[in-house]
C-alpha cells in the first residue's frame, strides 16, 4: 500500500476521535528555534536569509511547526489537532532521508495530563491496528522521573542543573558522571590565586560590567562555587545511584516494583513515584511494553512520558511521541501551555506491511 | 601546464620565511625573478615545477580545486575548511614550524570561570537570566562549533571576526573569543586568559597535497622530506 493510502486511513481515525486538521507553515523564523536549541540544532536545519535579512528555515519537525502555528493563531484553551506533511533535516548519514513524511497529532493546552497521554497512545495504537500491523513492541519511559531523582539527591545545586541539562547528551553525560565521581571539578591552586583577585574586585564598582557580566555576578558565582560542599565519597555514591537508576528496564507490569525497590535501596523519598505515571494504566493492555528509565533521551523537548512503537518483525520504527510541556513557552508563549503528541513514520509503513 | 608541478607557498610573514627555509634545507633554491610583488618563482633543480606565493587560506582552496598540486599551509586552516575541500586534500608531512594553538579565551577577570564546564553554566545564565546567548567571536566557526558541541556547550552564538579578535570582549562585540595563538602574549596583553581545558586544536605547518596530484608529485623530483 502506498503511504498516501495509509495517510488517508489514519487521518480518518484521527478525525473520528475529534482531532482537527491543521496545516503548519513550511518556512519558519529560525530564531524561534535556535534561541531555544543553540547552534547544535542549527546544524540539522536548512536555514537561509530572506530579503529583509531575517533568518528563516524549512521546518525541521512538524511538532515545532504546529506549536508555532498554535501561538500565531492566538488559540485559547485546548486544541486537538492533526497534521500531515514533510519535515526537512540535514544528516551526516547519507542513508537518512532529508525529507521525512510525518503524520501526527497533538493535544495542546489541556491540563488533563494523564488522560491526554493515554489518549495519544491509544489513538496511535488504533491507527496501527487499522493498517493491520499486528506484532509490535512499545518502548516507554518518563523523563520527568530522572529530574525528580536528581532533585532528591544531596549534591550542589549547580551539579543538579548540569546533570538535568545534559541528560539529553548521553555521551557528554557520561563525562559529567566521571567528573562527579573523581571530583576533578575545582583546582585548589587556581582558587587560591583567584581569591586574591576576588578581594580586589570586591572593592570595585559592583555594577561595572566585564564582557557582558556584572562584577557582582562574577563574584557571587565564584563565592558559591568554592563554598559548594564537595566530598569525594558523596560524589562517587551519587554517580553510582544515577548509573544504576538509568539501568532500570523491565516489562511495564513490573515497573512499579522495580522503581520501588530502587528507591528503597538508596533511601530516596518514595513520593517520586506516587504522582507518576499515566503510563501505568498501560500494564493492563495486551501489547509487549518495555519500560526504561533511560528511554527518550535523544530529543530535548520532552518533559514527561515518551514512547516509541516499532514492528517486532524487522524493528522498523512505526511511531513515536511524548509530552513536551515547556516547548510552547520556549517558543515565546508567556503562559505555561502543556502539550503532548506523537507522529507516525509514514515512510516506514510500507517496509513493514510488505 | 599538465606536466608542470605547481607548488603553493605562503606569501607573508613568519610562515613564508619558515617555508623558504624548509626549501633551502632541502637544497631547493628559489629563483624568484622579482621582489616582494612577484607572485611566481621557479626552482633551480626542478625545471618542471613552479612556485606561486599565495595567502595561506588561498593555498587550501587552490589545492581543493586542483590549480595547485602541492603546498605548505597551516593545519588549522585545513581543519577549518569545508568538508568538500578537506576530502580532496591530504597531509603528507607535518613540519616543525608554524606551531600555534586554537584556544578558547575569556576575560581575565571572569575569575569564576576556569573550565569549559564553567563556561557552559555561564552560557545558561545568559540564556535564562538575560535572554541572550553568549557570543563567541572567531575566525574559526567550524572548529569552534565542533569543539563546543562535543563539550556540551550549546547556548552560544558565533560572531564572525576577520581580525583583532582579542578586542571583541572589550568593545561589546562579543563576550568571549576563540583564536590562534603561539605564545599567548597577545591574549595576555589584551586581558584575556585561556581556559584550562580550552585547547581546540594544536596546529602546525604541513605539506599538503591535492589528492588528484598524488601520482604527478611522486613522479616529480621533489625530495623525500616532502612526503
Indicate the CATH class of the largest domain in chain B: Alpha Beta
| Biggest sheet strand line-up of chain B | 2-3-4-1-5-12-6
Helix content class of chain A: 40-55%
Q: Biggest sheet of chain B, open or closed, and with what strands and sense?
A: 7 strands, mixed
Mean pLDDT of chain B: 90
User: Rg of chain A to the nearest angstrom?
Assistant: 23 Å
Provide the domain count of chain B.
2
The second-level CATH architecture of the largest domain in chain A is 2-Layer Sandwich
**Residue share in helix of chain B:** 25-40%
Describe this structure in words.
The complex is a heterodimer of chains A (354) and B (227). With 354 residues, chain A is of the alpha+beta class. Chain A folds into 3 domains: 177 residues, 2-Layer Sandwich (BirA Bifunctional Protein, domain 2); 100 residues, no CATH class; 74 residues, no CATH class. Chain A has 15 helices and 14 strands. In chain A, the strands form 3 sheets. In chain A, strands 1-5-6-14-13-12-7-11-10 form a 9-stranded mixed β-sheet, sandwiched between helices. Chain A has a 3-stranded antiparallel β-sheet with strand order 2-4-3. In chain A, strand 12 and strand 13 form a beta hairpin. In chain A, helix 1 crosses helix 5. The longest helix of chain A is centred in the middle third of the chain and has 18 residues. With 227 residues, chain B is of the alpha/beta class. Chain B folds into 2 domains: 117 residues, Periplasmic binding protein-like II (D-Maltodextrin-Binding Protein, domain 2), CATH 3.40.190; 104 residues, Periplasmic binding protein-like II (D-Maltodextrin-Binding Protein, domain 2). Helices cover 32% and strands 32% of the residues of chain B. In chain B, the strands form 2 sheets. Chain B has a 7-stranded mixed β-sheet, with helices on both faces. The longest helix of chain B is centred in the middle third of the chain and has 15 residues. In chain B, 43% of the residues are buried. At the A-B interface, helix 3, helix 7, helix 8, helix 9 and helix 10 of A face helix 5, helix 6 and strand 9 of B.
Amino acid at each position: 500500500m502506498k503511504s498516501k493510502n495509509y495517510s488517508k486511513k489514519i487521518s480518518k481515525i484521527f478525525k473520528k476521535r475529534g482531532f482537527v486538521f491543521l496545516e503548519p507553515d513550511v518556512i519558519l523564523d529560525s530564531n524561534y528555534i535556535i534561541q531555544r536549541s543553540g547552534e547544535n540544532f542549527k546544524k540539522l536545519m536548512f536555514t537561509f536569509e530572506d530579503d529583509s535579512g531575517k533568518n528563516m528555515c524549512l521546518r525541521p519537525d512538524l511538532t515545532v511547526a504546529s506549536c508555532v502555528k498554535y501561538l500565531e493563531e492566538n488559540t485559547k484553551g485546548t486544541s486537538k489537532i492533526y497534521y500531515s506533511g514533510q519535515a526537512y533535516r540535514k544528516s551526516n548519514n547519507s542513508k537518512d532521508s532529508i525529507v521525512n513524511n510525518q503524520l501526527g497529532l497533538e493535544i495542546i493546552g489541556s491540563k488533563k495530563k494523564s488522560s491526554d497521554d493515554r489518549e495519544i497512545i491509544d489513538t496511535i495504537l488504533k491507527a496501527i491496528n487499522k493498517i493491520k500491523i499486528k506484532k509490535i513492541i512499545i518502548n516507554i519511559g518518563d523523563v520527568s522521573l530522572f529530574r525528580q531523582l536528581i532533585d532528591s539527591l544531596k549534591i550542589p545545586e549547580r551539579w543538579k542543573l548540569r546533570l538535568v541539562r545534559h541528560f539529553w547528551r548521553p555521551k557528554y553525560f557520561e563525562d559529567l558522571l566521571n567528573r562527579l565521581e573523581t571530583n576533578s571539578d575545582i583546582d585548589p591552586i587556581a582558587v587560591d590565586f583567584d581569591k586574591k583577585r576576588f578581594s580586589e574586585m570586591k572593592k570595585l564598582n559592583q555594577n561595572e560590567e566585564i564582557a557582558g557580566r556584572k562584577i557582582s555576578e562574577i563574584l557571587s558565582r565564584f563565592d558559591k562555587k568554592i563554598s559548594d560542599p564537595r566530598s569525594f565519597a558523596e560524589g562517587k555514591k551519587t554517580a553510582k545511584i544515577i548509573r544504576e537508576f538509568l539501568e532500570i528496564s523491565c516489562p511495564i507490569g513490573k515497573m512499579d516494583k522495580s522503581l520501588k525497590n530502587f528507591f528503597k535501596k538508596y533511601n530516596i523519598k518514595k513520593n517520586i513515584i506516587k504522582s507518576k505515571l499515566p503510563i501505568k494504566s498501560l500494564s493492563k493492555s495486551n501489547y509487549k511494553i518495555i519500560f526504561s528509565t533511560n528511554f527518550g533521551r535523544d530529543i530535548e523537548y520532552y518533559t514527561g512520558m515518551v514512547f516509541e512503537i516499532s514492528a517486532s518483525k524487522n524493528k522498523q520504527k512505526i511511531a513515536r511521541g511524548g509530552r513536551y510541556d515547556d516547548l510552547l513557552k520556549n517558543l515565546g508563549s508567556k503562559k505555561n501551555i502543556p502539550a503532548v503528541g506523537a507522529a507516525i513514520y509514514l515512510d516506514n509503513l510500507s517496509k513493514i506491511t510488505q | 601546464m599538465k606536466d608542470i608541478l605547481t607548488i603553493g607557498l605562503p606569501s607573508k610573514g613568519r610562515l613564508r620565511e619558515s617555508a623558504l627555509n624548509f626549501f633551502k634545507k632541502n637544497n631547493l633554491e628559489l629563483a624568484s625573478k622579482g621582489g616582494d610583488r612577484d607572485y611566481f618563482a621557479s626552482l633551480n633543480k626542478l625545471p618542471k615545477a613552479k612556485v606561486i606565493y599565495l595567502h595561506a587560506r588561498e593555498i587550501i582552496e587552490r589545492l581543493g580545486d586542483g590549480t595547485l598540486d602541492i603546498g605548505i599551509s597551516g593545519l588549522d586552516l585545513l581543519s577549518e575548511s569545508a568538508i568538500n575541500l578537506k576530502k580532496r586534500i591530504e597531509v603528507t608531512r607535518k613540519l616543525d614550524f608554524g606551531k600555534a594553538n586554537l584556544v578558547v579565551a575569556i576575560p581575565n577577570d571572569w575569575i569564576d570561570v576556569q573550565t569549559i564546564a564553567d563556561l557552559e553554566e555561564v552560557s545558561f545564565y545568559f540564556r535564562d537570566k538575560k535572554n541572550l546567548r553568549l557570543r563567541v567571536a572567531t575566525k574559526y566557526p567550524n572548529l569552534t562549533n565542533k569543539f563546543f558541541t562535543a563539550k556540551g556547550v550549546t547556548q552560544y552564538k558565533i560572531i564572525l571576526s576577520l581580525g583583532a579578535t582579542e578586542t571583541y570582549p572589550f568593545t561589546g562585540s562579543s563576550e568571549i573569543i576563540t583564536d590562534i595563538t603561539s605564545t599567548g602574549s597577545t591574549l595576555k596583553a589584551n586581558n584575556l586568559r585561556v581556559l584550562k581545558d580550552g585547547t581546540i586544536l594544536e596546529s602546525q605547518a604541513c605539506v599538503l597535497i591535492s589528492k588528484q596530484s598524488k601520482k604527478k608529485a611522486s613522479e616529480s623530483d621533489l625530495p623525500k622530506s616532502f612526503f
